[in-house]
Q: What sequence folds into this?
């Protein structure tokens, strides 16, 4: 949807919609998040694939080898996956909203447990999860204050 | 624009539009990114404010103290700021595109140098930078391949 930085596309998605999947994910979530996962038609786990450079021959055919070499630098794949995977997660939220769905993104869950349950045998690490569906108006609270333009930044 | 997780809103923005600001930022960027910064009408630095919990009395008036206590846990503010600050950066990109602007997000720059030049005396850390303006059609390349639905995930 939107741009990431350099076509790295590290996000991977598990679309949890079966009863078994929901129960497993809910069991690994913070208590207050459990009913949300069980009640939502679908909850997506957004993960960062630390092996994302393996896809460069497809994604960056003109530059794959150079780009793969660059990401051999220790720590770079991790921070890049977190940055770009989060951008991709935000595009998912915007895309779902554009379809009229409500989104409930959450980070209150056992990351290591989710990785073991849903990403075993890979180098994918869970970033956040997001319920998709239609929110109940009676469970929504009023929009909270935001920072002003000046509080959040300045010209230079 | 979109949702972040828990109204933490850690992103801070420096809107670089003066000649001095552009020259300073370009001097801290990877060589291939310099002309982009100098030619763009504006480049925004998206930073993560590790002190974001200080804003909770305004942003989360009903829950500020509990939330601030939670983020005293070592490392949690950093990963949370990176996740939510990147989501906010993606919303900025989508908002700019909705206004008809082209976006050039980049991570090829000296983060420590940018932090010193633009965020001195704060705990704000640069995440990525993004040129805003109107791209020249002759400098654009064709859209690269994406992963298929199945390559990027599965149902569970």
A:
């Amino acid at each position: 949807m939107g741009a990431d930085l350099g076509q790295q596309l590290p996000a991977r998605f598990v679309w949890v919609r079966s009863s078994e999947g929901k129960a497993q994910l809910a069991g690994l979530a913070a208590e207050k998040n459990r009913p949300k996962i069980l009640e939502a038609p679908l909850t997506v786990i957004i993960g960062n694939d630390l092996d994302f450079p393996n896809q460069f021959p497809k994604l960056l055919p003109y530059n794959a080898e150079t780009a793969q070499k660059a990401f051999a630098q220790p720590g770079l794949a991790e921070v890049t996956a977190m940055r770009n995977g989060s951008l991709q997660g935000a595009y998912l939220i915007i895309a779902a909203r554009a379809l009229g769905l409500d989104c409930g993104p959450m980070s209150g869950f056992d990351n290591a447990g989710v990785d073991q349950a849903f990403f075993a045998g890979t180098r994918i690490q869970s970033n956040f999860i997001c319920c998709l569906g239609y929110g109940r108006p009676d469970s929504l609270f009023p929009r909270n204050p935001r920072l002003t333009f000046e509080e959040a930044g300045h010209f230079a």
Summary: The longest strand of chain B covers residues 124-133. Helices of chain B lie at 19-27, 34-39, 56-59, 64-70, 76-98, 111-118, 149-152. Strands of chain B lie at 11-16, 42-49, 102-106, 124-133, 153-155.
